[in-house]
Amino acid sequence: MNTEQQLDEELSRPTAADLAAMASLAGDLMIIGVGGKMGPSLAALAKRACNDTGTPKKIIGVARFSTPGLRDSLEQQGISTIRCDVLNRGEVEALPDCPNILFMVGYKFGSGDHPEMTWATNVHAPALVAERFSRSRIVALSSGNIYPLWPVESKGPAEADPVGPVGEYAQSVLGRERVLDYFSRRDRVPMAILRLNYAIELRYGILRDIAGKVRHRKPINLSMGYANIIWQRDANSVALRCFDHCSTPPFVLNLTGAGAVSIRSIAASFGAAFGVDPILEGEEAPTALLSNASQCEQMFGPPQVSLDKMVESVASWVKRGGASLGKPTRYEERKGAF
Description:
This protein is an alpha/beta fold. Helix content is 40%, strand content 15%. The strands form five sheets. It has a seven-stranded parallel sheet with strand order 3-2-1-4-5-7-12, sandwiched between helices. Strands 6-15 form a two-stranded antiparallel sheet. The protein has a two-stranded parallel sheet with strand order 8-11. Helix 6 (115-132) packs parallel to helix 7. The protein is globular and about 55 Å long.
């Protein structure tokens, strides 16, 4: 992948499982929060799967569309768009009926400076959407941040393990889950909640963060010594395939790659690729933000893109001066302040 066009094509290329999922999905699909990092490629993935299977299904993208050109780009791909502020009850209520809702709205970066917006976006907005679409199925993106820091020698917490959000952002994410759970039970809305942790592609994500620091000789903090990583298309694929698993109360799934990745090891790999020695600071703490994705792998199979392939692709992209979204993940944050 040498260009953003090639990258976008790869991220939106459906697998056989995606084709089957979209062919069998009953009714149209509305993606609320399509303007985020994952939304555009997910919408394109769904639309391409419909086109490839000859399925006459409408894919609808809903967002504020503050990114220049995004709305036009989606429309050119055959994706219908609706401008909507999900914190505005009237605008949410005016959205058309749709049997399948993929909810991707969230507020993380900057949440430490704007706690009121954090709670409104992560708790109030999903409540409005759940009420409006009480006759639909809803797949909602959550975060592995709801778990406490976990011993690194383990596989991380599974879905049934106790939650323990660190910091106000993570607390608001748990609030989102609790609100969705409430409306699912009250109105009998079938839902699935996906605890994502962390999706990456070449322009953003943990690997891009580390590669940039190694390349530009910036120190890498090792205190959060391990993390979970999944290629964005693999994460989006699971999201599309989860509608068959919606239930009330909500079906909950950890969504990430298999096993914890060593930050030290990743830095060494990028150092070898760039011909430099990484600048490392500190030592690995005995705990990290981790998730056990065994259930996800049992249900949907292992991610198609391996860690080695991700590292190789990111290294090549950074070497060529490939584009960056300029949005660090801040994965190293241990006190939950984003």
